[in-house]
Please model this.
Amino acid sequence: MKEFTSAVSAEAMTMVNNTNSAAAVKSGSLPVFATPMMIALMEEATCYAAAPLLDEGESTVGTRVSVSHDKASGIGSVITAYATLTEADGRKLFFEVNAKDEQGDIIGKGTIERFVINTDKFMKRVNK
Model:
């Protein structure tokens, strides 16, 4: 892993539809953006932010998520998740995250931690 010297940020975007709604993923019964899908979008943004720091054969895995989902978003809403790497402690990466709708309103926010792993070694342990 390359040295972390300043804040690194990235974003990921999606449109709320019938496949990422609470009703579709069974995290509720309504046609609104599902909390698990918001978290997945935030994690996608953290992966993009971490990517420039990784060496060949490295990846990251999520280890901790602490977010709130503060505003509902209906079908057709465009949601953008933002992640900023705020700290690195060895191979542990700390991100501040938020998600906004197309009006710029924050629909969710929090922190995500990821850990840098060697992909081959990690998968060997998983498949044992």
About this structure: The CA atoms of residues 6 and 92 lie 15 Å apart. The chain has three helices and five strands. The beta strands are 8-15, 58-69, 78-89, 92-100, 106-118.
